[in-house]
Write the C-alpha cells for this entry.
Amino acid sequence: MSQSLLERVNVFFEDAGCKTDPTGLSKLACEGASDAVKAGAVASALVFGEILTPEDIFRLLNLEQGDIFYDLGSGRGQVVLAAALCSKPTKCVGIELMEPRHQAALAAKACAPEDIQRICEFRCEDVLACRLEDACKVYLCNAAFPRHLNAAFAGALDPQRAPALEALVTCAALPEESLHQARLQLIQVADCSATWATQGAPLFLYRRDGDGSSAARATAIPTNVRYEASRQLSAATQSTGLSHEDERSLLRSAVLASKFACLQ
C-alpha cells in the first residue's frame, strides 16, 4: 500500500528524531482545563492542531508549479514540506513565531531529499511584521485564533504588503469587517480532516476581490462541517463582542485539553 502524503512527510520528522507532541495538548492536559481557560493567550497559542489531509488545502488553492506558497504560523513545517512534495511550487515558505516549532521544521527539512530542501524555507518571525511581497498562495491555520488576531492576519495580507496574493485558505472564517481593507472575498467553503475534527473541518477559500467571482459556494461536505462553517460565517459578520469571540476560542482550547486528558 502506498504512503499517504502525510505519512511521507512524517518520515522526515522520524528521521530527524522529532517525536514531539505537535499540538501541545499534553501540556494543557497536565495543567487542567480550568487552568487553560485562565491562561488565556497561552492556551490559544499552544492548541493549534494540524491538518491530516494537506492535499485538500493544495487542491483548494490550485497550487501549481511556479507558485510561491506560504504557511503563516507553520508550526513544525508539516504543511510546507507536504506542499513541496505534492505540487513542487517554485518556493514553499513557513513562518513560525515559536522557536521550538521552528527548530523542528528545520530538522525535518534537513532529512528531506535535496530537491525538497532547495524549495523549502523556514523563518522564525512574526507574521504580522514580516515580508510577504512574493506570497502567491497562502494557508493560515487559524482555527483557535481569537477574532482580533484573525482580523490582524487579514490586515497583514492587504495589497500593499502582499501584492502577489492570489488565494488564501483558512481554517476559520475571517471577520467580515477585515475583508474590505485586505480586498479579500470569500469564494468557496470546502472540508478537510484535522486533528481537532477528524470527521471534517471547514476550509475557507478567499481571493482578491474584483476577479469576477461574486459569491461563496460550498462543495458536497458533511452536515456537521456545513454547520460549523455556517456558525463561523455568522460570527464573522458580527463586528461587536470581541471579548465573546476570545472567550469562545479559549473555551474551545480548554475542551480540547479536557478530551485529551480523558484519553490518557
Notes: Residues 52-239 form a domain with the Rossmann fold fold (CATH 3.40.50.150). The CA atoms of residues 158 and 182 lie 4 Å apart.
